[in-house]
Fold each of these.
Amino acid sequence: MKLVTAIIKPFKLDDVREALSDIGVQGITVTEVKGFGRQKGHTELYRGAEYVVDFLPKVKVEVAIGDNLLEQVIESITKAANTGKIGDGKIFVTELQQTIRIRTGETGEEAI
């Protein structure tokens, strides 16, 4: 089992959700986050004063999946979140040791 974490631009969330739904992913967790990578923020003008925005708004999407869906999930997220511009985001894949559904007690891939 794998945990796929994607940091994407907020306006791409619906596209990513639909793409994951199309390949059979049943559940995702979404968190509004702030951060920066190579973009390193930007400057904005507010009421005549210039200020630096260090942390940019992003969305973190987390998906727990079976090993057999990994390549499809990565491809779907990459295609749906891509704008071709800086700040499109990143995808991280980590190993899940165990998953437990609290309501039924199911474990492993049955719990996903």
Note: Residues 2-111 form a domain with the Alpha-Beta Plaits fold (CATH 3.30.70.120).
Amino acid sequence: MKKINTLAIIGLGLIGGSIARKAKKEKLAREIIGFSRRKSTLSKALREKAIDKATVSFGKAVSNADVIVIATPVSLIPIFLKRCQAHCKSGCLIIDVGSTKGEIVQRAEKIFSQDKFFVGTHPMAGSERKGFEFSRTDLFDNFVCFLTKTKKTNPQALKKIKLFWKQLGARPIVISPEKHDKVVAEISHLPHVVAVSLLNCVRSNIKFTGNGFKDTTRVASSDSNIWIDIFFSNKTNIIKSIDKFIKNLRRIRGRIKDKRKAELRKILEKAKSVRDSLI
């Protein structure tokens, strides 16, 4: 992928800010424009040289951009996609970084004409922290980034965005929007539900917890509004994952209740084997 002339980043939080920092470090674009509703965020991004220009005008941010990254909460992405159609130039590449893909990709493919190209993406990197102040250049290093592909996806656009994420340090994996939402419901959305449920079960004893409990529930410190958007956007798959988890929980409960030691050991050893296989 040739150096991008103008890269516009819509939203300079943890993800958008980290994209800006890494793109600047690797010199992926001749010019990086940051858009945010908060002037304080733009001032900080300029001061730390993560972006070259800052604006609170969406039209000014995207009108001359060759690549646009929408790094906002899930509920706002369709709004900005529609605004991109009205303001961005012919040949522009548009990506999002939302945690769900089905609804977003479906809407994007209805919005954009043949001369503007959208690829849904989702980097599996982040933190329970939010805001530009927590962004960093190595956030995506060696983490998976999903790229969605449908019958309407432009092959050249997909190829360019795949390389873009490689240059940001991620490991791109191409997947359908439907498959993506099923996968992340289990590996990302369900763990958040479990962490929240676990904390609400032990609130009175929270002062006695150790590092293991803190590690298990870390994600529950994330912004609740962001997660409400995610839960509603991917509700069918998340509900299925919750039901699957409850089934497994009941199985463990039954083995403990009936003192079926051998069967309980098999469950524990199977889980250990899977966990130990993670790099």
Note: DSSP finds eleven helices and eight strands in the chain.
